[in-house]
């Protein structure tokens, strides 16, 4: 199997799991890493045996690199991706795709012009849990989907993340930080959204960091931290989604999907595994459905591997820019709806990516 040479830009908290993906997936070869903080790039290279820690500029102009994996903070996702594309490289961004819609559209336009690919996290929808849900829905286990609920309720990130400021700035907040997991799960299960409405608030204007090393510092909050959206899907289901960094306790599920013949309890979409629970109409108890697909452990990077395989074989990749742009558009539209007090019709659409095949060998995304 030929390996695709990958360069990582942004060597912070999440970069380690991507560095591991370089060992886990057969078709990936992480050849270099870079960060504006060169010590971080050097540490990642040393810890994971990545051959070169280089400057961002060197990585972007390295002719030996085919795909840039962009793990920078959301504020610069668009800027770094555009530079990668301008240098003739495919790019795979951490979520969200970009801060603003126009920046994302600029990326997509440039990629089309240069015949390059854009991929984007999350790729958790390719995990064993969500792929099993997809198969159950497609096989008719809950009949015709009618609606759903999603809840991502927490007390925020300043208690555990070493550098939590960006979570309260444009491009983050609970909706833009965690919403992509939920919205990617919903759209890859139920298809595109037709219109949305919603309400959002900032509950605390300042947040105190309690994690090390920045404990005691305060963060000025620039984005809503409690957001509820209502989504009408093109195929008919109506879904509510609440994301919050202001909730200290709750008893709500991650995701449920309600159908004419039963209800599916979908696992946490920020994970790759289960449990997947099904209760069909008339049944008295929930049944745990065994996962039919692999990649139930933390398999971040599977989307990069799938994009590399798709480039090699000329097929569409699954964690693609159309899904990521639609998700970005939904999130902005929920905020727009809250600000203007109306429903917002979606200007974007997508089609559900192909499910993964059953029976994949570990480390592979194709049979
Ligand atoms: N931490 C998590 O658990 C987690 C999980 C999933 C996804 N993500 C996403 O991954 C991305 C990174 O998150 P993180 O937690 O690793 O953040 P982080 O702050 O720990 O790391 C980001 C890194 O990017 C570098 N950087 C910033 N601007 C840069 C630029 N212009 N060029 C090069 N490097 C630059 C920073 O120096 C830093 O090392 C975010 O988009 C986040 O939403 C994070």
Short description:
With 367 residues, the protein is of the alpha/beta class. Helices cover 30% and strands 23% of the residues.
Can you describe this structure?
By secondary structure, the chain is α/β, with parallel strands linked by helices. It has two domains: 4-120, 3-Layer(aba) Sandwich (Rossmann fold), CATH 3.40.50; 128-289, Dihydrodipicolinate Reductase, domain 2, CATH 3.30.360.10. It is built from nine helices and 17 strands. The chain has helices at 15-24, 38-48, 56-60, 77-86, 101-114, 128-138, 173-190, 302-313, 321-340; strands at residues 4-9, 28-34, 52-54, 67-70, 90-93, 118-120, 145-153, 193-201, 206-208, 218-220, 226-233, 238-244, 255-259, 262-266, 276-280, 287-289, 344-345. Strands 16-15-14-13-7-12-11-8-17 form a nine-stranded mixed beta sheet, with helices on one face. Helix 4 (77-86) packs parallel to helix 5 (101-114), helix 5 (101-114) runs antiparallel to helix 9 and helix 7 (173-190) packs across helix 9. Bound molecules: nicotinamide-adenine-dinucleotide. The site of nicotinamide-adenine-dinucleotide (NAD) has 22 residues, from loops. The site of nicotinamide-adenine-dinucleotide has 22 residues, from loops.
């Amino acid at each position: 199997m030929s390996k695709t040479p990958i360069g990582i830009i942004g060597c912070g908290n999440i970069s380690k799991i991507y560095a591991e993906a370089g060992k886990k997936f057969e078709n990936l070869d992480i050849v270099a890493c870079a960060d504006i903080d060169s010590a971080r790039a050097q540490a990642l290279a040393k810890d994971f045996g990545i051959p070169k820690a280089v400057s961002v500029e060197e990585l972007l102009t390295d002719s030996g690199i085919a795909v840039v994996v962009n793990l920078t903070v959301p504020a610069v996702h668009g800027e770094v991706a555009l530079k990668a594309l301008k240098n003739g490289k495919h790019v795979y961004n951490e979520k969200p795709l970009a801060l603003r819609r126009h920046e994302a559209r600029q990326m997509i336009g440039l990629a089309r012009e240069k015949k390059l690919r854009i991929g984007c996290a999350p790729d958790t929808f390719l995990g064993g849990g969500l792929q099993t849900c997809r198969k159950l829905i497609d096989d008719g286990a809950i009949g015709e989907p009618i609606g759903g609920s999603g809840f991502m309720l927490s007390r925020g990130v300043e208690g555990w993340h070493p550098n939590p400021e960006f979570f309260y700035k444009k491009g983050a907040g609970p909706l833009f930080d965690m919403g992509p997991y939920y919205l990617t799960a919903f759209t890859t299960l139920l298809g595109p959204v037709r219109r949305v409405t919603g309400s959002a608030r900032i509950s605390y204007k300042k947040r105190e960091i309690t994690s090390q090393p920045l404990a005691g510092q305060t963060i000025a909050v620039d984005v809503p931290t409690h957001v509820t959206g209502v989504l009408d899907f093109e195929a008919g289901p109506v879904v509510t989604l609440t994301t919050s960094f202001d909730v200290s306790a709750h008893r709500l599920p991650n995701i449920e999907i309600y159908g004419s013949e039963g209800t599916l309890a979908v696992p946490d979409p920020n994970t790759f595994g289960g449990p997947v629970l099904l209760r069909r109409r008339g049944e008295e108890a929930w049944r745990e459905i065994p996962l039919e697909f692999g990649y139930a452990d933390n398999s971040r990077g599977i989307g990069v591997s799938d994009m590399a395989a798709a480039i090699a074989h000329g097929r569409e990749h699954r964690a693609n820019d159309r899904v990521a742009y639609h998700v970005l558009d939904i999130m902005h539209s929920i905020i727009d709806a809250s600000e203007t007090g109306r429903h917002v019709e979606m200007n974007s659409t997508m089609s559900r990516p192909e499910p993964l095949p059953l029976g994949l060998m570990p480390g592979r995304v194709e049979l």
